[in-house]
Amino acid sequence: RAVVRMSNWALGLEIMRQLDMEVILHVCCRDRNLLGLQSDILGTHVLGLRNLVIITGDPPKMGDYPKASAVFDLDSVELLKLVDALNNGIDPAGKMVGEATSFFCACGAEPAALDYDREMSRLVRKIQNGAEMIMTQPVYDPAILDRFLKDVEAFQVPVLVGLLPLASHRNAEFLHNEVPGMQIPAPILERMERAPSGPAARTMGIQIAQEMLEAVKDRVVGAYIMPPFSRYASALEVLSDLGYSRAPR
Predict the structure, then answer these.
(1) End-to-end CA distance of the chain
(2) What pLDDT score was predicted for residue 4?
């Protein structure tokens, strides 16, 4: 959704400084024109932030500020091409830059897209234009994710599966009915409906996310977890019972 968040590079830099770990920055095409995007990208390189996931972005009408202007000088395919050119020392005007950048770029994908053929066609173009990793939208149907993983095997690029723990039956219905590219199968909706509201529902949502991760962990390089409603502890809960933890320093 199109909502206001802290500057991606500012937060990424703070995480990198405090936790001494690499970060992946979301770069969205919606909010800046060609010049602004290029300026931000070059700035993040100077700061040592070298991992990007490039997305087109949702229109403002799908967020808290529906009257905000959307730019969309570029889409995700075109921005990937721009960054790939910068990695080869060339700017969008065809001029040589002082020093080639060294970005690692990921792209987004919707395994449950309604127009699946179009989604796969765009994914091919993203990889052809420099994407080196795929990060999926949240998936709740193992069959849908299985089809997608089989179809991308030929691309020979790593996949990070997206997990969004459901917070309640109402939350599940909203995602299913209102968010493009999100399909929640009837059995999952029924499980969330049977769970009492509050902590019990959140526990069920975490369990469902754990089941999905366990089902595909041998076929992906990892997962990224989107905590619902900024409940960041939910991300840790998804991982804790599965035996995942960061090794002590």
Answers:
(1) 36
(2) 77
